[in-house]
Structure formats: C-alpha cells, structure tokens
Amino acid sequence: MTQATATPPHSRKAPRQRRRGLRIVLLVLLVLLLAAGGTAWWLYSNLNGNIKGVDINKSLGKDRPEKLPTTGQNLLVLGSDSRAGENGKIAGGNVSGARSDTALVIHVPEGRSRATAVSIPRDTLVTRPECAKSDGSSMPSANRVMFNSVYSQVGPACVVKTVEQMSHVRIDHYVEVDFAGFKGLVDALGGVTVNVPQDIHDGASGLDLKAGPQKLNGTQSLEFVRTRHGIGDGSDLGRIGLQQQFLLDLLSEVQKQDVLGSPAKTYKIANSATKSLTTDSELASLTKLAEFARSMKGVNPDTMETIMLPVQYDKVDPNRVVAAEPQATQLWKAIHTDTEIPASAKKSPAHGG
Fold first, then answer.
1. Count of Cβ atoms closer than 10 Å to residue 301 Cβ
2. If we measure between CA atoms, which residue out of 242, 244, 246 comes closest to residue 186?
3. Cα separation, 175 vs 276, whole angstroms
4. Strand positions, DSSP E, the chain
C-alpha cells in the first residue's frame, strides 16, 4: 500500500461537518446491531459466529492508564486495510500485510448523553511501546514509527497499547472493520448515493467521478473514502472530509430503504457487517454488542463532535506529522478527566486541504 503523503494545507473542514462523522458512526452501528438482535435464533447463531474476538486485557496486563470513576467509556475503532481472505480481491490486493487505515478514539462520558471522537492520522509518527507478539516473543519499543504500521508489525493489542501510551487514556473496548466488511455493507444496501463535491480523477486507485450526485457501489465507495490523489492537497489529512460525508450519505441510504422493515435485507446487511468485524473479547457477541449499543441510545447527536488529533508537519520528514503540543496533551487530558475540551486543543497546525 502506498503510504500517505502530507503536504501543506489549503483549507479547513467546517466544525459542523466534522461533528457529523461521529453521529453517523454511532447511529449506523446502532441500527445494525439492534436489527441483528431481533433475528431468529439460527440467524443469530450464524451472525454471532462471524464476530472475531481479541483478548486485549490479557495481552496488555496491568500496566495501563488509570481508569477514573468519571472516565466513562473509551472505544478504539479501526478500519483495517488487510488484504487477507476476501480483502485480497479488493483495494490493491497485491499489497502484503495490513495497516490501520482509519483510527478513531470515541469517548462517551458517564451518563452517555454526548460523545466525542478523536481521529488519529495514520501518518502520525509515534513511539511504539514494547509489545508481545502472537508467537510469544517480544517486539522492542521504537521511536518515530508510523502509527498505521503498528497494526501490521505487532497486531491490534499493540495498537491499543500505543494509543494508551500516547494519550494516557484507558481504552475500554476495541472494534475493527476491514475492507470486505465495508464493501459488503454498501453492496448489501444496493449502493449509496453521494454528492461528489468536485470532479475526482485518481490515477492511483482508478476512481473517476464527475461532480454531482453519483450512486456508488461497494468498490467505488471504498475508493471514494480512501482517495488522496484525486481531491484536496493530496494528503492523508485531506480525505477525512470525504469519509465523513460518505458516512452521512450511508445513514441516509439506510433510513431511506427502511432496512428495519425488511428482515431479509436486515440479515443481509448484518451478515456483511459482522463477517469482517473484530472486537475485544468483552464485546465479541451480538448480545454484548447490542447491549453496548442500547446503552448509548441516550447520546444526543446534536452534541456529538469529531476532532482530529492536533498534529504538525514533522521537521525532519515533512511528509509525516507529529502530535502538536501543547494542544494534544490538553485534548487527551480533557478526555481522561472527562472535562470540557479547550477550544485551543481542537486546532491542528496541519489539517489537510
């Protein structure tokens, strides 16, 4: 997979647009999970068997950030670009390994009446902590490692440990969705109509779209949310706006089709969503996922927001970014203590175009 290149920004996405991203993530998950919870037992059993679990707590041990009584819930959501299994047929199947293509830390305070999501740019240089590998050996700590490479180097538990070390925020749950799950969800809906903001011609992916309303199938949708070369300044940071826009259109499509009114379509969509879903072991069943989703029903979408981790262009390698200080520390501290995030902590010197 070609690594993203960060270049100087030209514009900033509006706060309202960024807030929409988390609203869609949470509501889409809620709709799908609650729909799956109402199927017949044999359907439930099949869907339940689709979900893969990772014992994060066992892998990380006790050397973790303190969980304060008022911390609420913190969920790490990863979009994986693995080419294993069904993923090998899509999105550049000749690329080996896997990376965390999208990463969101979703913070839901006590009371669960609002929520905040922090997007960690994949090109961020971080310190990877010492982590245990699946074969029992140990991967030593390393400085200036690309954030999205941690997944392929050591695995999901190390991604959680890396996030906890850089943020000092305890991660309670882990959810991962891969390429095949995303593509399958869109195809199960029969496509999603998006309002393409401008002509997009991405020679790297082959995506070729005219400005205006376009109905995209699963493959096109995947290319749309992953395109860098076809829009903005060509950076990884610049495509975040497209991802948020697509999630909004995805929810609109779910609502328009009245998915909950069609058991057959509900099952088809839930099957696509769960087949490529990996969670921490505490969420690795439809019952537990549905319980978690229902516990978030009180979240008011109007109070949700998404924030990109404040980053700046690296002085040694301008194609990479590093956490901007003191903004990043202020942001993570507010999440850890469940206090209001300062406006200054939401401003990123590097924000794409």
1. 14
2. 246
3. 11
4. 52-54, 73-80, 100-108, 116-119, 125-128, 131-132, 138-139, 142-146, 173-178, 192-196, 200-202, 207-209, 212-216, 277-280, 305-308, 311-313, 321-323
Predicted confidence band of residue 335 (pLDDT cuts 50, 70, 90): very high
Please give the Cα distance from 58 to 275 (Å, whole number).
24
Residue with tokens 């019952």: 287
Average pLDDT over residues 207-219: 91
Q: Please report the pLDDT score of residue 255 as a whole number.
A: 63
Give φ, ψ of 151 to 5 degrees.
-60, -50
Confidence grade of residue 100 (pLDDT, cut at 50, 70, 90): low
The C-alpha R_g of the chain, in whole angstroms, comes to 19
pLDDT, average across residues 323-340: 94
| Structure token digits, residue 122 | 């994949």
pTM listed for this prediction: 0.77
Residue 8: DSSP 8-state: -
Find the length of the chain. 353
Q: Tell me the one-letter amino acid at 217.
A: N
